[in-house]
């Protein structure tokens, strides 16, 4: 008989409320926290302090921005999945388009780097797109692009186990978390295995911890769930807001972005901290983090 999951609680640490905060990542070069506000099209940078988050800068990307990853080379800036493709953001905030990859009627969403320095990011269907016309794409360190997965409704949480041999991916439209065998030499994903099909909330962003377990933000679920690599729930982090969007780990602390988008006036009054970034002490660190390119 499976025991009930452990229950933990999160606290708000950002002063600002973001419409659709997403994609938190620690920059391994600088220790900065990176995150995006998707529809606003802005990349944010901050530093964690004992009191919360000290916001350092915001960079306007010029299109809806789904995710961010640091570049491997010091001072080289960041790579973002924005609009229908990939863009490079320099250290001083200049934005340079690289390649468009997503189909018409879709826009780029969540992403992460693999251990070989590729940036993988997926797309979600917007107005005019077919229900499953999204995909998952990879940007190689040399700038080449390729399609990894097709037939996706809303590409979301993406991560790799500590060995780099398993890729995890969420399709939020299907409410499904799937694992794949990942070939680090080629960047190909194969042998899909559905771990969980959620029926009570929508899975969104995820991260993988040093023990190989997954932390999955549950949109309209008011929580983040820790799962074993096989999909068994171990713990929940409860939030006072309905729409956690994505997560990352920093020295035993889980950081959670949230959103207020789509909440009516009554729902926003009931959950006034919607859109803030939250933290919870969870006692486990992150799996290795990766950057785009080769340093």
Element layout with pairings:
Layout: E1 6-9, E2 11-12, E3 21-26, E4 33-37, E5 42-49, E6 52-60, E7 65-70, E8 78-82, E9 85-89, E10 95-100, E11 106-113, E12 119-125, E13 134-139, E14 145-152, E15 155-160, E16 166-171, E17 176-183, E18 188-197, E19 202-208, E20 214-219, E21 223-227, E22 233-238, E23 244-250, E24 253-258, H1 265-270, E25 278-281
Parallel strand pairs: 1-22
Antiparallel strand pairs: 2-25, 3-4, 4-5, 5-6, 7-8, 8-9, 9-10, 11-12, 12-13, 13-14, 15-16, 16-17, 17-18, 19-20, 20-21, 21-22, 23-24, 24-25
Overview in brief:
By secondary structure, the chain is mainly beta. It has one helix spanning 265-270; strands spanning 6-9, 11-12, 21-26, 33-37, 42-49, 52-60, 65-70, 78-82, 85-89, 95-100, 106-113, 119-125, 134-139, 145-152, 155-160, 166-171, 176-183, 188-197, 202-208, 214-219, 223-227, 233-238, 244-250, 253-258, 278-281. Helix content is 2%, strand content 53%.
